[in-house]
């Protein structure tokens, strides 16, 4: 995927929307879908999400950026009552074909309905303005409906945009400011479950202010994570070892007497 990114001369520090669209239509994404179909960790993550949705009896579901349809098929197989729409801007023919046998799965181009549950797995780190896209997702969910969101704001591959990485520290805060309530982690996956609590318009002045602050603090937070936190851990280990050694010495003196 990085090789194709470089061949198409994409730049993750100054993303060109036209190039991004071309990149996400490249056949390499078909290979990515096939990889997910056979990757143990990816399958376990989607199985955990589908289990939660079925247990909560959510029946009107949107898989936002649903790719190959793996998650949608898991849900459909576990719940005959579930109706799953997949919004995928660039669906591969193989993805469409893989879902043909499921009467309760549909690929959709228009997003107008209100859903009981929306799932977004590893989408927001790919777009230049993830908060605008998150707002769109929120608008598609009914009040007291759920959003299950898995993010990976890290430089694992080049199409993860660095301008989004600060959100690894502030996403929950921003989600709250946008009308969501964090309910729980989706255990067995890297997703977080949010409840939509309000239909009030988003206060974009406040949200963008938090976003700017998050950007400014990112370097300090990274420094703390890599160095200060590591130093604290090592210091605790040294202190614990010193206490243990001192106790051993005292015990040996006691037994000697």
Automatic annotation (TrEMBL):
Q: Which InterPro entries match?
A: SAM-dependent_MTases_sf
Q: Which domain of life is it from?
A: Bacteria
Q: Which Gene3D superfamilies does the entry mention?
A: Vaccinia Virus protein VP39 (3.40.50.150)
Q: Which Pfam families match?
A: Methyltransf_23
Q: Indicate what this protein is called per its UniProt record.
A: Uncharacterized protein
Instruction: Specify the species.
Output: Phormidium tenue NIES-30
Upper classification of the source organism reads: Bacteria, Bacillati, Cyanobacteriota, Cyanophyceae, Oscillatoriophycideae
């Amino acid at each position: 995927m990085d090789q194709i990114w470089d061949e198409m001369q994409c730049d993750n520090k100054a993303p060109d929307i036209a190039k991004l669209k071309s990149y996400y239509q490249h056949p390499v994404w078909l290979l990515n879908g096939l990889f997910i179909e056979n990757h143990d960790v990816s399958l376990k993550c989607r199985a955990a999400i589908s289990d939660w949705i079925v247990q909560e009896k959510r029946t009107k579901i949107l898989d936002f950026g649903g790719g190959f349809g793996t998650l949608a098929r898991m849900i459909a197989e576990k719940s005959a009552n579930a109706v799953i729409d997949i919004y995928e801007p660039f669906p591969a023919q193989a993805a469409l074909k893989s879902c043909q046998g499921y009467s309760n799965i549909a690929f959709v181009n228009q997003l107008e309905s209100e859903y009981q549950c929306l799932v977004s797995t590893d989408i927001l780190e790919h777009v230049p303005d993830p908060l605008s896209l998150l707002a769109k997702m929120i608008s598609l969910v009914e009040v007291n409906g759920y959003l299950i969101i898995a993010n990976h704001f890290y430089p694992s591959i080049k199409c993860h945009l660095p301008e989004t990485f600060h959100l690894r520290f502030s996403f929950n805060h921003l989600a709250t400011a946008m009308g969501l309530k964090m309910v729980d982690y989706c255990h067995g996956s890297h997703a977080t479950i949010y409840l939509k609590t309000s239909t009030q318009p988003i206060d974009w002045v406040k949200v963008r202010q938090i976003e700017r602050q998050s950007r400014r603090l990112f370097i300090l937070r990274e420094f703390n994570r890599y160095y200060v936190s590591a130093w604290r851990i090592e210091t605790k280990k040294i202190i614990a070892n010193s206490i243990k050694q001192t106790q051993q010495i005292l015990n040996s003196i006691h037994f000697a007497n």
